[in-house]
Amino acid sequence: MSFRNRLIAFFVVLVILPLIVVAAVGFVLASESEQSKTEGRLLEAQRASSGLFGEFRDRAQAAARVIGQDAQLSAAIRSGKRARIQRRLDTLASDVQARRTTMTLAHAGRFETGRGDVVAPAHTRLIDAEGGGAGTLDVSVISAEDYAALLERVTGTDVAIRGPGGLRTTTLPGAAAERLPERGEVSVGGRTLRVRGFGGPAFGGGRLAVRVLAQAETDGLSNSAIVVLAILLAALIAAFAFALTVSRSLQAQIQRLLDAAKGLAAGDFRVAVPTEGKDEFAALGTQFNEMARQLERRLDELQLERRRLREAIRRVGQSFGRTLERGPLLEIAVQTAVDGVGAHAGRAALRSGSQGRFEEVSGEGDVSRFRGAIDAAEAAALRAGSTVETEVGDVCALSHPLRAQEGGRILGMLSVARAGEKFTQGERELFAYLAGQAGVSIENADLHDTVKRQAVTDELTGLFNHRRFQEVIANEVERTKRGGPGMGLIMLDIDNFKRVNDTYGHMQGDLVLREVARVLRESSREIDEPARYGGEEMAVALPGTDLEGAYLFAERVRRSIEALDLPLIDGDGSLRVTASFGAAALPPNQAKADKEDLVAAADAALYRAKRSGKNRTVRAE
Questions:
Q1: How large is the angle between the packed helices 595-611 and 466-481, nearest 10 degrees?
Q2: S-S: 412 plus which of 70, 77, 350, 528, CB 3.0-4.6 Å?
């Protein structure tokens, strides 16, 4: 079999057949990709539905809490006058922007505000003055139609919502929710749509069913399939062109052998000579190729090691931008810089303040031996604002400022040094790249710390926010279940805070909140967790504290707040404020401890303190 025939067989087996197989696989993957994209959109829509539903339910819960704790509504209920109750309920529903409110009282019947279908309702019990059940309150802040329209805007899919009584709303005319399956394909208005349905506990305990619909790519060739077909045709054309070129090149075997010999003499070892047949040219070509391969292999090994070193250094440099701890980050930066440029020692220094001196935080090698050259390089680099190389005797040093991207502020310096040899241009460029990545990483670490603090801190008061408070309470309750020492909890509410806002303005109210929060922080131990619970309510988790300890802590804080003499914003006089407290506690080793029960007990005690005349502390029953 001639070399040309072997080449043709090689071409068919290793080029044409793999292309056909790859094309077939590509068509299958393209089809599955289109379906997976549609399913992905529907899955994202499901997540968005759940998230939006939870958000509106939380808003409804907050609105229900405001309505249920309203003193004027409580007074109206005690009066027993339906008209008065209805007027106050209408006012509160308007204030909290409730779309529909239903209140059922044990002795006065049912009261409603708003109309139409609503979703994400919040249900709460109303407690009378004796602590018994006075009735129930249901609040919703969004209608089914608005919820469907918002979900359509967020996900880009059509939406149909069905309740126990049938179809509530839909954004796709002609799509009756009763005819839509939970999953599959349907035809609506001549369009083929994929459907995904969901409901259950996340959507009102099964009382609400949501269907999302997206265009299904099922007819004809999809865009991905067309692309695969075009690539296949282009590859076949290129393959045939390549085969034609190879067949013609066989006529110039001797010329290529001569050209390869010239290339080898010039240092080019990449040329390979065809060796078909068993004649002298084939033997010569075989020996020539073997010699070229050995030389090329030696060079490739050297270049591969160099590429590996540079790629490893660059990967480490890129990881700087993702590191969030200063200590390990700077250690890696110094070690990588020293290894990357072949230095003998190096160090990283950071400013102690905005204009403070640089302090060494990480070192590699005998830095003291090269300190003079490193100090000179750092001083020159600080003046130049870029990479600087200095020579002191037989020592060469490189230094580069660690600069923040925002504002160009210099955060520190990265320096390396070695004896007896200057740094090359490539080494200087690599060092500058590593120093730049280290500066970005330090800035990211600072930003991460700032964001981490902001995520758990209330901006106005500086206390922990509601989210952080809930996490702390949950963790402490779990510790108690596992045999922990128990915990105390106090909740406080600033007395007549609405009157302060109405009389002196919200800026004065903010001052009151900040001063009360300051008293709370200063009175707390290091292990305590003071938080802003919401509005003018604050809370403190007291690990390892019993009920009496929580009561004494609350009394100490109450007296400190009562002693405050706050200046008025307009400069005319001062203001005195008080607060009411509720104290509760979990004894140690409570296997059935419950976070909600603890918070409810402290809240109920706070409510009794408010009703008993305010400016006092009441223990939980």
A1: 120
A2: 350
The residue annotated as part of the active site, out of 364, 427, 536, 537, is 536
Segment 196-227, tens digit of pLDDT: 776 654 454 445 677 776 666 554 555 666 77
Q: Which residue has the tokens 């089809």?
A: 31
| Cα–Cα–Cα angle for 78, 84, 88, rounded to 5 degrees | 95
- Answer for the pair 77, 250: CB distance below 8 angstroms, yes or no: no
Q: Are 161 and 119 in contact (CB under 8 A)?
A: yes
| 3-class SS of residue 202 | helix
Contact call for residues 586 and 474 (beta carbons, < 8 A): no
Alpha-helical segments (H) within 184-279: 223-249, 253-265
Q: Which residue has the tokens 């308007």?
A: 94
**Cα dihedral 74, 77, 81, 86 in deg (nearest 10):** 80
Say which residues have a Cβ less than 8 Å from residue 280's Cβ, sequence separation at least 6: none
pTM: 0.38
DSSP 146-171: HHHHHHHHHHSSEEEEEETTEEEEES
Active site residue 301: no
Say which residue, 295 or 94, is predicted with more confidence: 94
Domains of the chain: 41-219 (no CATH), 223-313 (no CATH), 321-450 (3.30.450.40), 466-619 (3.30.70.270)
Rounded distance between C-alpha atoms, residue 3 and residue 35, angstroms: 47
> CB-based contacts of 112: which residues, under 8 Å, 6+ apart?
100, 101, 102, 103
The answer to whether 119 and 147 have CB atoms below 8 angstroms apart is yes
